[in-house]
Design a protein that fits this description.
Layout lengths: L4 H21 L5 H27 L6 H12 L8 H15 L8
């Protein structure tokens, strides 16, 4: 895999704030409060998506197999899978950020 332990840690550091924010969103009781929360989190969301995409795009020769291996490593990383929801959020972030990149279609 082209992404070693240091790269995985770098991705975890970028992803973790958004994963934790999504965990916080699960406790919001009203739809209006949720929408306000979402609006407040938009800069974080956009930043994480852009950074995760750029981190892959800037690496020469990275291919779909490398990305799939990284996806698996991140979905197994203890800092990103404390809950079932964390794992789903992590996968959703990666899928959205990587859509169309090097053939990513999930």
């Amino acid at each position: 895999m082209i992404f070693g332990p240091e790269a995985v840690t770098a991705f975890v550091d970028v992803l973790k704030p958004l994963v934790l924010a999504e965990r916080q969103a699960e406790t919001i009781e009203t739809h209006e409060a949720y929408l306000r929360f979402r609006e407040g989190q938009k800069p974080l969301n956009d930043g994480v998506l852009g950074t995760v995409r750029a981190m892959v795009a800037q690496i020469p020769d990275v291919d779909l197999d490398d990305m799939q291996a990284l996806y698996g490593a991140l979905l197994d990383h203890s800092d990103l899978v404390a809950t079932v929801s964390d794992r789903a959020v992590t996968g959703a972030i990666l899928n959205e950020a990587w859509r169309g990149l090097n053939g990513w279609t999930k």
